[in-house]
Specification:
Bound molecules: flavin mononucleotide
Strand content: 15-25%
CATH class: Alpha Beta
Number of domains: 1
Structural class: alpha+beta
CATH topology: Chorismate synthase, AroC fold
Shape: globular
Helix content: 25-40%
Distance between the termini: 37 Å
Oligomer: single chain
Number of strands: 17
Strand order of the largest sheet: 8-7-9-15-10
């Protein structure tokens, strides 16, 4: 069995993005249409910028799949940047003359990678930093995450997400376990009820009118995970730690909460632990009466839904730019403005799902091994069956 890993490459306005996913077993049904459907979810969203109208993302599979079935070899994908047609000179791989517009930019956007990236990499054109720092790269992660999601489906794991806050507006009226995910998918702001939908949109409209941006919180949930993904035995195998790293790596994400982690801090200990009771009707033979832990105890999944809340900051690029400085002259200027979103919370949701899927697939492959989907399914079934010896007397 090959270790699961993936790598993305590509600049925001370059020719396209490349993704290689390694360690996916043989025998998984996978189509470009399945991946495209997931990628299109990242492109919808109230308050999205103009680019989403240009790009209709599609990942072309270049290796690792034959006749709609994975081979167990690395899966390479190519995602064309349709906007590249307008950037052939500015993003040319080969040298260009001084007579063409290189779209050099030097006015630092506070809150972007511009300043530390320029100093670290010795760049006088901030585009050399921004092009890779841009959230365009998350399209590649969603493509990789779609393959992970497809594999998780085989053992009954499904992943969903919704917006739970936009600015000051809270959208948690419906509890996680009661959410109708079709309602969320139909909402342009990924709200789980019509009242939140209206309030989120009004908040985004207000931000747009004020020429500013707005952030929020989104929730990612995995249903059907078995007990025991991740491990307590070492810091870097803990599932919660791995999820936190993965979510935090999403552009603009600044906070993460597992289960009700933050509200738990304001409650007495007796109210926040998930009491366990025997339950022969449960495949684990036991059941927790609540899920404050968000499905993870001691760095391992405990069989309950895995619930992660992710805080995402308001976008740094604004139609009314902040005061800033020029990286080369030190002159006080207005920060650069490029076409940009007002609110990216809904668009970040599918990225969060992708990161959840990638972490869970890695942990699942560690647990079950297996070079083919059938082998994984057999190992999974035998493991789940083995729980029956506990609590059965
Ligand atoms: C889906 C998504 C879309 C984004 N769109 C924009 C955008 O249009 N304009 C922008 O300035 N930042 C956008 N961002 C955020 C920046 O990429 C991010 O703030 C920047 O790279 C700096 O990284 P940091 O905020 O993680 O420190 C987006 C983030 C995500 C997840």
């Amino acid at each position: 069995m090959t270790k699961f890993r993936y790598l993305t490459a590509g600049e925001s306005h370059g020719p396209g993005l490349t993704v290689i996913v390694e360690g996916i077993p043989a025998g998984l049904g996978l189509t470009e249409e399945y991946i495209e459907k997931q990628m299109s979810r990242r492109q919808k969203g109230y308050g999205s910028g103009g680019r989403m109208k240009i790009e209709k993302d599609r990942a072309d599979i270049r290796s690792g799949v034959r006749h709609g079935i994975t081979l167990g070899s690395p899966i390479a994908m190519w995602i064309e940047n349709r906007d590249f047609a307008n950037w052939t000179d500015a993003m040319s791989v080969s040298e260009v003359g001084d007579d063409v517009d290189k779209k050099v930019y030097t006015k630092i956007v506070p809150g972007h990678a511009d300043f530390p990236g320029a100093l670290k990499y010795g760049q006088h054109d901030l585009r050399n930093v921004l092009e890779r720092a841009s959230a365009r790269e998350t399209a590649a992660r969603v493509a990789a995450g779609s393959i992970a999601r497809r594999l998780l489906e085989e053992i009954g794991i499904s992943i969903h997400s919704r917006t739970v806050a936009t600015g000051e507006e809270d959208g948690r009226a419906v509890a996680t376990e009661d959410v109708d995910w079709n309602v969320v998918e139909a909402s342009e702001v990924r709200a789980s009820d019509s009242d939140s939908d209206a309030r989120f949109k009004a908040a985004i409209d207000k931000s747009k009118a004020a020429r500013t941006t707005i952030g929020g919180v989104f929730e990612v949930v995995a249903f059907g995970a078995p007990v025991g993904l991740g491990s307590h035995v070492h810091w870097d195998r803990k599932l919660d730690g791995r999820l936190a790293q993965a979510m935090m790596s999403i552009n603009a994400v600044k906070g993460i909460e597992i289960g009700t982690g933050f509200t738990n801090t304001r409650k007495p200990g007796r109210e926040v632990q998930d009491v366990i009771v025997p339950d022969p009707s449960d495949r684990r033979m036991f059941r927790q009466v609540s899920n404050h832990a968000g499905g993870i105890e001691g760095g391992m999944s405990n069989g309950n839904p895995i619930v992660v809340n992710v805080a995402i900051k308001p976008i740094a690029t604004m139609t009314n730019p902040l005061p800033s400085v020029d990286i080369n002259t030190g002159e006080v200027v207005e920060a650069a403005y490029n076409r940009s979103d007002i609110c990216q919370v809904a668009r970040a949701c599918p990225v969060g799902e992708a990161m959840m899927a990638l972490v869970l697939v890695e942990a699942m492959l560690e647990k079950y091994g297996g070079d083919s989907v059938d082998e994984i399914k057999r190992n999974h079934a035998a493991y789940v069956e083995s729980h029956q010896v506990f609590g059965s007397s």
